Amino acid sequence: MTRMFSPAVMLLLLSVFAIDVHAQAPTKPAADQPFVIEYYYKVKWGHANEFLQLFKKNHYPLLKKEVESGRIVKVWMDQPQLHMTEDARWDYRVSIVFKNATVANTANPDEDATIKSLFPDQQTYKQEEQRRFEILDAHWDLPVQKVDLEAK
Questions:
Q1: Rounded to whole angstroms, how far apart are CA atoms 44 and 139?
Q2: 138, part of any domain
């Protein structure tokens, strides 16, 4: 039986790997800096327009209220112009720039009151929001940060 690497070589390889992983680790966002999260939606075939209609009717007004309150700096939606492979496909990406990372990771204490004021017919609102998620194949959230290409 032959040994591939001696214990010393293994230790050296593990050390190099650990240094490389640490060097590539993302930096912690500054408390006073905007924080971006991208929300991806993969809709079941044939339901993209329905999803968009429900999103614009029930979720976008809530996001606009958060912009008015200052919790969110900016919000927008993108969709791909060309097709992708099915495993990589997404239909809509909503990008939200939050005031900071704390706000992005803290529930809005006014959300329930805002929802009730925007949507007095709570039964319809809840049914439509349930439908919006029923027609999804997948949904994922991805915090993103800028990479300073000039940093050394």
A1: 11
A2: yes
CA dist 41 and 59 (Å) reads 13
pLDDT tens digits along 8-48: 544 544 454 454 444 455 566 667 899 999 999 999 999 99
Per the model's pLDDT, the better-predicted residue between 100 and 25 turns out to be 100
Least Cα distance to 94 among 141, 145, 47 occurs for 141
Contact 35, 143 (CB under 8 A): yes
Q: State both tokens at 138.
A: 């997948």
CA 38/CA 143 separation, integer angstroms: 6
* CATH code where residue 46 lies: 3.30.70.100
Chain Cα centroid distance, residue 130 = 19
**Cβ atoms within 10 A of the Cβ of 150, count?**
4
Number of folded domains that form the chain: 1
